[in-house]
Amino acid sequence: MKLTCGIVGLPNVGKSTIFSALTKAPAEAANYPFCTIEPNHGVVELPDERLDFMASVFQPKKKIPATVDFVDIAGLIKGASKGEGLGNQFLANIRETSVIAHVVRCFDNPDIQHVREDAKTDAPIDPESDILTINYELCQADIDTITKREEKIVKEVRALGKEAEKKYAGYKSAIAKIMPLLQDGKCARVADLTDEEKAGIYDLHLLTVKPQLFVCNIDEDTIAEGTNKYVETVKKLAAEEKSEVIVICGKFESDLADITDENDRKDFMDSVGLKESGLTVLARAAYHLMGLRTFFTGGPDECRAWTIHNGDLAPQAAGVIHTDFEKGFIKAEVYSVDDLRKFGSEAEIKAHGKYRQEGKEYVVQDGDCIFFKFNVTK
């Protein structure tokens, strides 16, 4: 499964506007349901002040940031799990993602149709009903997935007996916790599962187990406050699901994305009291929610942010740069960006005893600056 963040929600909530602003890629956006049919894919550079700082120190010829993959998935409506509104296709697209960014409409605008049940009927702006509708459809899809798996497991248990029962012990106990939640329209991610139970259901790729964050799409009048009655409703529901909430004005972010001059961008954000783009916050949150972390390499030729998984060891991190680095790994010379910020140069870091050598069991930390030593004999 690709490490991608799928942008989902009801039709006309601003998914494609946000996606286009994120990726600066032309995703179709219009005031009618299902203007997005095939999912739009985009790679987003992850703004990182740490990389910018390193570049200011090393003055490299190139600066290469980490990236996040986003997928704009067409709007779901009530009945999607039964195929309504091309629902089966869209649910399959969600299944291919690793993290869900659920965009919720949190603004009033009579000129933009709001749809919940079908493309012909306007629905009132009601984030709670919107969220519950999406959750219900995802839950129904997961119930169908589990039901189909159960049929296969029953046959296997009949054929292999206790051996199969032992094999599926973690699966069985996980389903016993998850199924009542799904039947009540609640997401499986809120279930308290053991590591064995998580492993038991991993290959089901349940939609409601995927990590999720809510993206509240507000209007420009709400930017300064950063919240409204609709956002507060989303925050309450998100707390119950233990999900993060990001507040974004899709229209503002779309206009901001068209500004290329950094001073003009800063002035535009200052005009509404923003210190950083809401899309930067979203990209960073999605990156971390996917379990991704960043280490850096720096020098006069290139400063670069490299993406690893949380918990990766030094040889695995080395392998991200080149497979030979992992095969012939000897050691890693490590310091942190914070050390560089504090002492100003690698020479001073060494002088203060903060430049260290780490071996194969070292767990790379977010924000490490690393120089790998390796040797590959032919």
- Work out the radius of gyration: 23 Å
Order of helices and strands: EHEHEEHEHHHHEHEHHHEEHHEHHEE
Q: What is the first-to-last residue Cα distance?
A: 34 Å
Please estimate the helix content. 40-55%
Protein structure class: alpha/beta
How is the main sheet built? Answer: 6 strands, mixed
Number of helices: 15
Number of strands: 12
- Mean residue pLDDT: 88
Order of strands side by side in the largest beta sheet?
2-4-1-5-6-7
Which geometry do the CA atoms define? flat
Model regions low in confidence, pLDDT < 50 over at least 5 residues? 25-37
Strand coverage percent: 15-25%
Care to describe what's here?
The protein is built from 15 helices and twelve strands. By secondary structure, the protein is an alpha/beta fold. The strands form three sheets. Strands 2-4-1-5-6-7 form a six-stranded mixed beta sheet, with helices on both faces. It has a three-stranded mixed beta sheet with strand order 3-9-8, with helices on both faces. Strand 6 (212-217), helix 8 (229-241) and strand 7 form a beta-alpha-beta unit. The protein is flat. The two termini are 34 Å apart. Mean pLDDT is 88; it is low at 25-37.
Task: Describe this protein with a few key phrases.
alpha/beta, 378 residues, three-stranded mixed β-sheet, six-stranded mixed β-sheet, 15 helices, 42% helix
